[in-house]
Amino acid sequence: MSKLIFEKSVAGSTSFRLPPSEVPEGLALPASMLCTEGPALPEISEVETVRHFVELSKKAYGVDTGFYPLGSCTMKYNPKINEWAARLPGLASIHPLQPVDTVQGALEIMHHLERILCEVTGMDQFSLQPAAGAHGELAGILMMKAYFAKHGETQRTVMLVPDSAHGTNPATANMAGYKVVQIKSDARGRVDVPSLRAAMNEQVAGIMLTNPNTLGLFEDEVAEIAHIVHSGGGLLYYDGANANGMVGVARPGDMGFDVAHLNLHKTFGTPHGGGGPGSGPVGVKARLAEFLPVPIVRQGSDGYYLECNRPHSIGQMLAFYGNFGVLVRAYAYALALGGPGLREAGENAVLNANYLRHKLRGVYDIPFDTLCKHEFVATPGKLKSECGVSTIDIAKRLLDYGYHPPTVYFPLIVPEAMLIEPTETETKERLDVFVEVMVIIAKEARENAEMLKKAPSLTPVRRVDEVGAARKPILRYKAEGL
Ligand SMILES: Cc1ncc(COP(=O)(O)O)c(C=O)c1O
């Protein structure tokens, strides 16, 4: 285990020297308010500081260091041209409170990106403000709520959510004040349409649907689903977290969705926001546009401007206009690939997922072994029933081989799920090596299950007690001698 930088501290070491202060001491503040001691910072030389952080950085795993098949979370490669664009001084150094005539270029980027997102999704207008997918969901559901309030349909208090949905969907509906009713999946892993029909009534505000769903399957009855919900007076929300699997091929706006968010980190190659400093723009059909968050970037005869006076808007979802740096990266990605390139990326994501599904068939169980989109579910199958090896053991053993595991135990409707999403940029060679490792682990499960249950054995931190970590977290570390 590495030591903390505080534990490496040696009294008297330093990596900087400050010039004498030019501010007279104790001038403005009364003595009672002044610190009597300096802050407890580590005392360490420059070279040891550099070594400490470089060593830590080498332990971090990311998509730039290796394969990251994290299904549903989509850890896709972030092309470096995006970083170049975001660091251009004219973009990186501007301030959101600058007068609009000094930031016309930034507004133009936002306006163009908004148009691109409309084109990709078939929506009429977008807000770039939400900071994550879940945040986009909340903005979208609040707009649906505002729509029903304006039309005097406040009795619509129920949101339908399929049982395969990501946890953020029911959480969002709940936060927006809706009662969540779950719709079960059918034997094909899609929304069970008869159950949906039975659940639809005048209390239902709508449905939140992910397509392709979290099993990586296209909801091929989406037209019928849209018909059922619309004819019952409800609206359709599109969780676009999985749009990478169909970008350039099919559009939620054409499927009947009224509101849609996109996770720019999943479809437009921006850094993953970790639920916060990312971007989850939300788009709507024209009849909901008046409820979009403010401000909206508009193009007038004198250039771009920010429209703030929108009486029916749900209000502001984030400071200023969203995470501008992320928007620039998404714009760079879209321009670098172009329309055909975006489609090709989606096609390659689907091809890679199907390649892996095919190669792992017979080694692991594939519960829905049909053509998938960008991801698919595998389970240990007989490795569990015959050797007692669980998904968590396989995931931990992958760490020993230098791979980030897939998403595990999600979606909840498949016991022991491993949700595998290779993404479009992985080469066949890389996928083949991953398959080899998965085959070796399956062999190990049969020959030495006990070893797998103790995995990982080669990582700096071994198997952690995950339940204990969640239930009895140790939130403070007390280093020896401090
Ligand atoms: C299907 C689905 N919906 C919503 C989200 C939430 O997105 P975010 O993590 O950007 O909040 C995710 C995240 O992984 C997801 O997979």
Widest sheet, order of strands: 1-7-6-5-4-2-3
Compute the CA-based radius of gyration: 26 Å
Fraction in helix: 25-40%
Describe the main β-sheet briefly.
Answer: 7 strands, mixed
Shape: globular
Order of helices and strands: HHHHEHEHEHEHEHEHEEEHEHHEEHHH
Count of discrete alpha- or pi-helical segments spanning 4 or more residues: 16
The count of β-strands is 12
| N/C terminus separation | 18 Å
Hey, roughly how much beta strand do the residues contain? 5-15%
CATH architecture of the largest domain: 3-Layer(aba) Sandwich
Low-confidence stretches: none
Number of domains: 3
| Global mean pLDDT | 95
CATH class assignment of the largest domain: Alpha Beta
CATH fold type of the largest domain: Aspartate Aminotransferase, domain 2
List all distinct small molecules, including ions and cofactors, that are bound in this structure.
Answer: pyridoxal-5'-phosphate
Description:
The chain is built from 16 helices and 12 strands. The chain folds into 3 domains: 1-23 and 38-60, no CATH class; 80-336, 3-Layer(aba) Sandwich (Aspartate Aminotransferase, domain 2), CATH 3.40.640.10; 339-471, Aspartate Aminotransferase, domain 1. The longest helix has 37 residues, at 324-360. It is 37% helix and 11% strand. It is α/β, with parallel strands linked by helices and 482 residues long. Helix 2 runs antiparallel to helix 11, helix 4 (104-121) runs parallel beside helix 11 (324-360) and helix 11 (324-360) crosses helix 14 (428-447). The mean pLDDT is 95. Strands 1-7-6-5-4-2-3 form a 7-stranded mixed β-sheet, with helices on both faces. Residues 72-73, 132-134, 166, 168, 210, 214, 239, 241-242, 263, 273, 275, 278, 280 line the site of pyridoxal-5'-phosphate. Pyridoxal-5'-phosphate binds next to helix 5.
